[in-house]
Amino acid sequence: MDELMQFLAVMAALSAGAQAITQQMKKRITILHLNAKAKPNDSVWDEVYEEALRRVNIHLLAGINGAVLAGVAQVHPLQLLKLRPIWSSLQPEWVGSLLDYGFAGVLVAYGGPWFHDALGLLRTYKTQVKAIQSTPKKD
Is the torsion defined by CA of 70, 75, 80, 83 positive or negative? Predict the structure, then answer.
């Protein structure tokens, strides 16, 4: 249970950090068209395409930010769960680490809200278990 709690806490922290960096980059990078601007288009399909492209770019940027943060913090998500990924035995060693950080980036980009919710559920569960264990039993 502690490994799962640690995994969720680390991934939630990475997710929050990547989200904050992505929000700042959205304001400053104009090349990727990350800000939604209302401009007249010829058709509805152009608007749908531009919105979809903007969302894809935001998720891609969030994944890259998550992977970079995982690399800086040297977070290996599956090893937090005491699992050994199949790419950890690749040579040279940095290839396996790079894949691990990329995996963390994907988890951070698409699982952010899930990690926060699951971490909250685990915290509530642990506090309830402690409360039950600390109450005296009646004979």
Answer: positive
Q: Find where tokens 């989200």 sit.
A: 19
Domain with 82, as residue range(s), is: 2-134
Question: Is position 127 within any domain?
Answer: yes
In a domain, 39, yes or no: yes
Total-model pTM: 0.67
Contact between residue 111 and residue 34 where contact means Cβ atoms under 8 Å apart: no
- 107 lies in some domain: yes
- How far is the CA of 18 from the CAs of 39, 48, 117, 118, in angstroms? 29, 26, 17, 18
Q: Of the ranges 31-45, 52-66, 100-114, which one carries the lowest mean pLDDT score?
A: 31-45
Q: What angle do CA 20, 21, 25 make, to 5 degrees?
A: 120
Instruction: Evaluate whether residue 139 is within a structural domain.
Output: no
